[in-house]
Design goal:
This protein has 368 residues and is an alpha/beta fold. The protein has two domains: 112 residues, Aspartate Aminotransferase, domain 1 (Alpha-Beta Complex); 238 residues, 3-Layer(aba) Sandwich (Aspartate Aminotransferase, domain 2), CATH 3.40.640.10. The protein has eleven helices and 14 strands. Strand 3, helix 4 and strand 4 form a beta-alpha-beta unit. The longest helix is centred in the C-terminal third of the chain and has 19 residues.
C-alpha cells in the first residue's frame, strides 16, 4: 500500500528520528549569528578554530577532570567524519575491527568500503545489550586492529558500566589494539550519579585511543555539523592531513557557536536530561503491555531497541508497521545481522507522540 504523507493525507507518528527535539540554546544561536556578522565565514585552520579547540580541552577538564591539550584535538564535520577519518587512516585491507552489535549503522559499511573486516560481538536484550569483555577478547585474532565502542549506544541506548568499559580498555591494551570510543551521547545518561566517564579517563595511552564526540546531541546542533576526535599527537598529524584533503575544514561559524556551547551556561542540560528520563520511563511503562516484544531498560541516549517474536524480518516488520499502523520506526537490519527481529524506537519526541505511537504499535501487534 502506497501513501503520501507529504500531501497531508496521512497521519504518521514518527518514532524514528535520531536527533533532539529541543531547540538549540539561544546563546549558542546568538554566538553563531554574531560570528556571521563578524565575517567569520571563511576557512578556519584545518585543525579547527584555536579557541574552539581550547574550549574542548576545557570541556574535558570540567566534566572529566582530565587534561586534553589543543594539539590532541582535531575538529571535524560532525562525529561521523571523525570516525570515518580514523578508520580510513588506520585500518588497512584485511584488518579486523571488533564491533559490539547492535552497532551504529555507519561502522560496518565504512569498514567494508575501505577493505577492512567488521567482526561483530553480539550483545543480547536479556543482558540489556551490555557486552561481555570475555567474548570480546575471544574475538581477537592476529588480524584484529581495533575495538570500536559506543556507549551510550545507538541504537540500544545501553550505557556500559564503568567496570565493563575498563575491561574493554584492558582487552585492547593486552593485545596491542587501537581503541575507538564514540561518546556523542555522553551527557545523556539517566541512572547514575555524577558524570559518565569518558574512555579518556580509563585508557592513559592516547597513542592507541581515539575518542569521538560532537555538539549534535547535548546541544541540539545536529544540522550544524561540528564534532571532534581526541587522540595522541602522532595520530593527530595523520588525521589532520587526511581531513585537509577531504573535508578541508569544519563549519567555521558553527565552531564559534561551539565555543559558547561548551563554555557558556550549562543549566539547560539537567532539565533536558530529566525530560528524556521521564519520556524513557513512559515508553518503558507502555512497552510492558505490548505483546510479542522483549525489552529492557536503556541507561542513556534516547532510544529503545525491542526484539519481537514474529516471523517477519525487520524491514518487513517496519514497513508493515508504517503502512498498517502509521508508525515510523527504524528496522534493526542496518545495525547488524543479529538484529533482524528488532527495531529502534526514538523517544526524542513529546510524551503525547510516545503515547500515541505505542498505542498504535500495541493495537497492531495485538492482531498477531
Amino acid at each position: 500500500m502506497m501513501f503520501n504523507e507529504a500531501a497531508g493525507k496521512e497521519d504518521v507518528v514518527h518514532l524514528s528520528i535520531g536527533q533532539p527535539d529541543f531547540d538549540t540554546p539561544a546563546p549558542v544561536i546568538e554566538a553563531m549569528v554574531q560570528a556571521l556578522h563578524e565575517g567569520k565565514t571563511r576557512y578556519a585552520l584545518d585543525s579547527g578554530v584555536p579557541e574552539f579547540r581550547e574550549a574542548i580541552g576545557g570541556y574535558y577538564e570540567r566534566t572529566q577532570g582530565i587534561q586534553v591539550h589543543p594539539e590532541e584535538v582535531l575538529v571535524t564535520d560532525g562525529a561521523v567524519e571523525a570516525i570515518t577519518l580514523t578508520l580510513q587512516a588506520f585500518i588497512s585491507p584485511g584488518d579486523e575491527v571488533i564491533l559490539l552489535e547492535p552497532a551504529f549503522v555507519v561502522y560496518a559499511p565504512f569498514i567494508q568500503m575501505i577493505g577492512g573486516v567488521p567482526v561483530s560481538v553480539v550483545t543480547r536484550v536479556e543482558d540489556g545489550y551490555i557486552p561481555d569483555p570475555g567474548e570480546v577478547e575471544a574475538a581477537v585474532t592476529p588480524r584484529t586492529r581495533m575495538i570500536l565502542v559506543n556507549s551510550p549506544c545507538n541504537p540500544t541506548g545501553s550505557t556500559y558500566p564503568v567496570q565493563v568499559l575498563r575491561e574493554l580498555a584492558a582487552v585492547a591494551r593486552r593485545h596491542g589494539l587501537l581503541l575507538g570510543s564514540d561518546e556523542v551521547y555522553e551527557q545523556l545518561v539517566y541512572d547514575q550519579e555524577g558524570n559518565y566517564p569518558s574512555m579518556l579517563t580509563l585508557e592513559p595511552d592516547r597513542d592507541r585511543l581515539f575518542v569521538f564526540h560532537s555538539l549534535s546531541k547535548t546541544y541540539a546542533m545536529t544540522g550544524i555539523r561540528v564534532g571532534w576526535v581526541v587522540t595522541g599527537h602522532s595520530n593527530w598529524r595523520l588525521l589532520q592531513k587526511l581531513h585537509t584533503f577531504t573535508t578541508t575544514v569544519a563549519n567555521t561559524p558553527g565552531q564559534w557557536a561551539g565555543i559558547e556551547a561548551l563554555t557558556g551556561d550549562q543549566s539547560f542540560i539537567s532539565p533536558m536530561v530529566s525530560e528524556y528520563r521521564e519520556r524513557r520511563n513512559l515508553a518503558l511503562d507502555l512497552l510492558q503491555d505490548i505483546p510479542h516484544l522483549s525489552s529492557y531498560t536503556p541507561g542513556g541516549a534516547f532510544y529503545i531497541f525491542p526484539r519481537y517474536d514474529l516471523d517477519l524480518d525487520a524491514d518487513t516488520f517496519c514497513l508493515r508497521l508504517l503502512e498498517e499502523a502509521r508508525v515510523c520506526c527504524i528496522p534493526g537490519t542496518g545495525f547488524g545481522d543479529s538484529c533482524r527481529r528488532a527495531f529502534r524506537i526514538s523517544y526524542a519526541v513529546g510524551p503525547d507522540t510516545i503515547r500515541e505511537g505505542l498505542r498504535r504499535i500495541r493495537q497492531w501487534l495485538t492482531r498477531f
